[in-house]
Amino acid sequence: MRTDTCSPIPRLIHQTWKTRDVPLEFQALQRSWIDRNSGFEYRFWTDEDIGRFIAEEHPALLPVFHGYADPIARIDLARYLILRRFGGVYADLDFECLRPIDGLLEGRSFVVGLEPEEHGRLAKAVERGLPRILCPSFLASVPGHPFWDHLLDRLVEARSSADVLDATGPFLLTRAHAAYEEARHGDGAAAVTVLPPELLYPVTKEDCWSGRLFDPVFWERATRRAYGVHYWEGTWFRDAAGRGAGPEATLPRQIAAVVTDGRPEGARSPLATAEGAKAEGLPLISCLMVTRGRRALLEFAIDGFARQTYPNRELVIVCDSPALPQDDPLERAIRAAGGRNVRLIRVNAAGRDGGLTLGELRNIAVDHAAGRYVCQWDDDDLYDPCRLQMQQRVLAAAGAQACLLGRWMIWWPAEDRLAVSCERDWEGSLLCEKAVMPRYPALRRGEDTPVVEQLRRSARVVRMDLPRLYTYVVHGGNTFTAAHFEDHWKATAARFSGDRCRAMLEEMGKRLPVEAYRRAVMPAPATVAARQKTTMHEKVLVLTPVKDAVAHLPRYLELLGRLDHDPSRLSLGFLEGDSGDGTHDWLADRLPELRQRYRRVALLRHDYGFRPEGPRWAPDVQRRRRELLARSRNRLLSGALGDEDWVLWLDADLVDYPPDLLARLLATGRDIVVPHCVLPDGRTFDLNSFRLTGDEDPRHLADGIFQPPRGAGRLYLDAFAGQDIVPLDGVGGTALLVRADLHREGLCFPPYSHRGYIETEGLAAMAKDMGVTAWGLPDLRIVHANH
């Protein structure tokens, strides 16, 4: 069979199974090849299809095909012949595609991957002297590539081999390739591209079978460069019980458990064993949830309970809000989860100033628990289906009375950030014998920390390391402030953002409803539109420092007049200084007409005597220029702010922005938010609005403020195109919306170095210290003059 090996590998994907009834555990993997490779034709082959193909296309090989005792050998032969005839890509069903494979195929006529190096140290490979092994689970070629004929000759010779690995599998493929390469250098035959393990086979059989892939840090590092992952399910030699059972099938060998025993000496007893726990039967675990009953996220927590693999469990929900007369969200969520093993206790806190504390409500839940064990089950977090099973198993194996997670996942769904926490006792993950459970103190937050401290002193406690069992979600309505969670982000064991965060969430999404949760906390367009209508009545003060701005002010007032916000709810404030073009007089002449249109208008004046000779962006004038701009902003704020709800800082030299600019900024509901400021050619102008990719480099400190080269350690808003809203570490002032109460509480533009930042960037840093995050809208564009 002749072929043109210069032709591209056909965009065709082949997969096989016994029948068209693909096992459930492989269906998502099968879809990954179709979903991630648009433009590829997909062809599925059953055993019947294969038998017919061999009979029609290769009748001479039928004796070999039917002579194999092991069915997997027939599949091996079939994949080789299919690719020889049609070309394209073959992938086993236990192979997941992680990204489009065009990059693997481009410019190549035959592609095969190496198994992990560890496989070359396994007994069978050592016996055969094969330190490296080519794997046939992923193959790609042009039709008729000369290697196929070479391989088929070797395959016929080896048809009587006792081990399928030598007859048709990886060992045969490896030997055939070595011989082909040796001969190819003499006759110039077409090349075979052998890819390193990290591209197609980033994990070993042991990694898959031991449960190590459940470790998020290991999974992320292993798959960082991978186009796919082969899970080594071994359907041809492992029975169904050993496949696709998930991490709960066996206790992962990499799990670390730390035990402390605070019991008095006389109260200590020999360790229990996992086998002993099984003999006694699985004890009842009471999961305890405290809720106000109206939070949309509690349905995820209830659903997470319903999907637990541990069978003997109940959910006790304590709610201190009365039921709504119609369609109560709490009772609706209970019904949606099937309502099995769920008990709802409503608490009447009438007459209590501020209602019962969280600690008091948790005690009520403990008192109503029927189980031998109680487990904290917060109403806004996500729980892996095997959380209870794994924690109870470790607790029993350690003979402990309480179990905690030493690390858990922390997710910021609105910010595209995910992390593995630092190592500590995570109180929210507590599973404890009810008999030794201390009482919660009557605190509104932090009530579970004293409980864990007491348990460490009085009970045997095991801390286990399996972070994916619990995902703590930072959704903006948590008990603690944003600054608290920023401290956790800085202390995390591993951080994922951008593409790697999305890859991790996709992996976690196989077991958790991450996308549904994200949609629940991110407002839908209809919600944003409704919020825009409600913000039309907000009182907004527009503040603009001006200097030599006469050329820009007509366009400034034109754009301001186009805003779709009620002008009777808009106030204006200007501070002019150091102008040489009559800016102050120009504005003063227009005050009467402006005051007829707008709610209030203030014109202030203060000269600083700052007129640098060089360009305003020169590094050696930044400290002084931005110091004076910060002073101007603060002076304008103190002289113009009245009873307004919001302050919109607006540059005088903007040349375009949409009429709904203010409405869209207000509709985010964020305390500090900026649009994406660009130049007329579309390039990002505002480099003060950024997100840090790590810690600032101290080498970039100049005059006490960070002045890195463009892009060094910072991502600007153009890096987040397509995302609705993103958190920022710095903001610019071209169009900056700030809740007025923040300014009243002391938020200003520091005219000094505040942790290495000044003026608008310093404002964002100061806000973070106050527990307030600044946000940016990458796709809301405004245009700045190019000068």
Walkthrough of the structure:
- The chain is an alpha/beta fold.
- The protein folds into three domains: 12-230, Spore Coat Polysaccharide Biosynthesis Protein SpsA, Chain A; 257-263 and 272-521, Spore Coat Polysaccharide Biosynthesis Protein SpsA, Chain A; 528-784, Spore Coat Polysaccharide Biosynthesis Protein SpsA, Chain A (Alpha-Beta Complex), CATH 3.90.550.
- Helices cover 35% and strands 21% of the residues.
- It has 28 helices and 34 strands.
- Strands 22, 23, 24, 25, 26, 27, 32, 33 and 34 form a nine-stranded mixed sheet that branches. It has an eight-stranded mixed sheet with strand order 9-19-15-18-13-10-11-12, sandwiched between helices.
- α14 (298-306) links the parallel β10 and β11 (313-319).
- α13 crosses α17.
- The longest helix is centred in the C-terminal third of the chain and has 22 residues, at 619-640.
- It is globular.
- The chain starts with 11 loop residues before the first strand and ends with a strand.
- Mean pLDDT is 88; it is low at 270-279.
- This is Glycosyltransferase.
- GO terms for molecular function: transferase activity.
- InterPro entries: Glyco_trans_2-like, GlycoTrfase_DXD_sugar-bd_CS, Mannan_Polymerase_Subunit, Nucleotide-diphossugar_trans.
- Residues 286-405 form the Glycosyltransferase 2-like domain.
- Keywords: Plasmid, Transferase.
